[in-house]
Amino acid sequence: MLIKDISKYAGQEFEVKGWLYNKRSSGSIAFLELRDGSGFVQAVVVKAGVGEETWANAEKLTQESSLIVKGKVSKHPKQEGVFELQVSDIQVAQIAEEYPITKKEHGPDFLLDNRHLWLRSKKQWAIQRVRDIVISAIYDYFHEKSFIKIDTPIITPNACEGATTLFGIQYFDEGEVFLSQSGQLYLEAAVMSVGRGFDFGPTFRAEKSKTKRHLTEFWMMDAEAAFVEHNENMDIQEGMIKFIIKRCLEKCQEELTILERNQEPLKKLLNLPFVRLTYSEAMEKLHSLGSDIKFGEDLGNDDEGLLTQNSDVPVFIHKWPKSIKPFYMKRDSANPDLVLNDDLIGIEGAGEIIGGSQREDDYEVLKAEIEKEGLKGPEYQWYLDLRKYGSVPHSGFGLGLERTVGWMCGAQHIRETIPFPRLINRVRP
Ligand code: AMO
């Protein structure tokens, strides 16, 4: 029996195996807020209606004590659609020691030091459940679109997203190798076999950023498809974001309510096309809004905020200057100084949630780019091989899971969206 199914047991006996989340007691009646992982329920213990032992157990329960509670399911007297438990028996599994996380406000460092306990708090519980729904929505979207799941390696000898953010590890007699920054290069190889594929796994970037949107270990979904070009690549991304949002609105009502998430902006964008601005158009818009960003510079948080501030929909910024983008992006035939890439900026301050591009598919051009970036030739030979044996136009993108979950939840900082965050100054617990 799980609390999430309690409405099916109205009028019947029910058993909760879980923990005490909160308690109010007046001396003759106690209200226990119980949680079992699947949900929360109020259990009412009436002193005159239960045995002495059960009342004594109710009285000694402390926050987070573990227990098994039996009782009859009844409708909440005031709240429509809410059920509660009229308790007949309480068995205590363990009386918890004084719990460090109480109802009073705690600072972020204290909560992060106690992340192993903080995860039990209602909002944190809700965020992890939204994360689970976002993950399963991504799998479903891609399976519906005939992409298959491909597992790319974590240990890799090459750099996908620039050598400056690599985490190095000593690999036996092979010398230094790295933790993956993105599975993209390997996924490109796999889709020349399976046509359309996606991976999903932890990625690592030794970024010295202390923003609300940077982790050093985060989960990324990379997708890749053969015979897909730049515009279709953005269509696939837009479809995926709308699919995720729709799924969250369908499946996460309780969680979004706990998180006090205003759902209107999410609902609104479902029926609207996303805005697509070229990098040049974005520059013009930024200048007209007072930004002093120069052509050829990356967008900062403030710029992303300006570009989306009055937008009801996420904004694609596409066709960026080649000079600030990685070696694998295909040049735009209409202007070889630009590449056929896109960043998708979410609304409500979500920031960049996707980076994607059409990939360079010409052997000689790609080889020259790899050499120009000073990357170690031999490590990329297999990647170049893909352009030797049946090269095709192909495109893909990477979605940051934590930024997406953060946006869905309206979370202030993406450190709350991953169970155990790894930040530049935090690797514990
Ligand atoms: P990119 O570098 O844009 O693209 O990364 C893709 C997405 O990953 C998320 N992200 C992060 N999330 C949390 N902390 C970080 N430090 C961090 N860095 C990136 C963002 C970002 O949009 N290989 C390409 C994708 C591709 O073209 O297929 C890539 O890695 O949400």
Automatic annotation (TrEMBL):
Single Gene Ontology BP annotation: asparaginyl-tRNA aminoacylation
Organism: Candidatus Magasanikbacteria bacterium RIFOXYB1_FULL_40_15
Recorded GO CC terms: cytoplasm
Protein family according to the UniProt entry: Belongs to the class-II aminoacyl-tRNA synthetase family.
Gene3D superfamilies: Bira Bifunctional Protein, Domain 2 (3.30.930.10), Nucleic acid-binding proteins (2.40.50.140)
Protein localization: Cytoplasm
Enzyme class: ligase
Keyword Ligase: yes
Substrates-to-products reaction catalysed: tRNA(Asn) + L-asparagine + ATP = L-asparaginyl-tRNA(Asn) + AMP + diphosphate + H(+)
EC number(s) on file: 6.1.1.22
Keyword field: Aminoacyl-tRNA synthetase, ATP-binding, Cytoplasm, Ligase, Nucleotide-binding, Protein biosynthesis
PROSITE patterns: AA_TRNA_LIGASE_II
Name of the molecule in the record: Asparagine--tRNA ligase
One Pfam family, short name: tRNA_anti-codon
